[in-house]
Amino acid sequence: MARYVSSLQVAVVAVLLGGSGCATLRMVPPGDVARQSEVFEATERSSMTGSFVDESFVLGPYQVAEVDRDWNRGSGFSVAGFSKDDTRTAYTFQFVDRAEKLPAQCTSLTERKGLSLGKAGSLSSQDARLVCTCGVGDGAARLELEDRRGDHAGRVALAGRTFDLTSVHETTAAWSPGEPAGFRVDGAEGPAAAVEVLRPGRIWLSKSLDDGERRQLACLLAGVMLYVEPTDD
Q: What gap in Å lies between CA 66 and CA 57, rounded to an integer?
């Protein structure tokens, strides 16, 4: 049976590992990302997750709203080209930027047994894949993140461009955890973004991105922040 780490456990571990003075464990962003990016903290975010929890939160100028972890319980649904039978867990949310609202959805694949995102929700698995999309039709952005025996990597496709997704392990603790504390996004022109998966979470967005790219990329990274490894039925 898969091992589920609750949000409360994550918070307790983060405080203990952060050292004395109740400092919260945080990801240390790579220097090149931090130098050319704006950072946005997640605020108003609950420490709990689940069907009966309001998981909406604010992410800088954006809002994550209408998080639905039960939407895949009906018949006939599909996400990112995968049917209900292909998935282990799936969720949707709305990503709001002023008057602009992007529909978003994420799924992890059944045949890969879920995904490990470090302290944000760990799972003992050999292979895993998380797929998120933001937007509709040909203009939708897409993120794929894979864990192949502990080697986390992926890709992002948006606005006709492709970016690499790699794990970040450095934290404010005196040691580096085996699981990722977050991920960075790099394109042909250098760093584009990063996301911290330790709660409450943060994102970094390159100042070189235009408003549309920033919106879609932030939406995809919010999907990674919302990932919770499912329990076995």
A: 10
Q: Which residue has the tokens 């978003």?
A: 104
Q: Which amino acid is at 135?
A: G
159 sits in the region (left: phi over 0; alpha: psi -120 to 50; else beta) called left
> Is the preceding peptide bond at 200 cis, omega within 30 degrees of 0?
yes
Q: 3-class SS at 111? A: helix
Tally the domains of the chain. 1
pLDDT at 124 over 50: no
DSSP string, 201-224: -EEEEETTS-HHHHHHHHHHHHHH
pLDDT of residue 1: 28
pTM of the model: 0.81
Is residue 147 in some structural domain? Answer: yes
Quick check: is 165 in a domain? yes
DSSP E strand stretches across 84-149: 87-97, 100-109, 127-134, 141-148
Which residue range is the domain that position 124 belongs to? 7-225
Residue 40 DSSP class: E
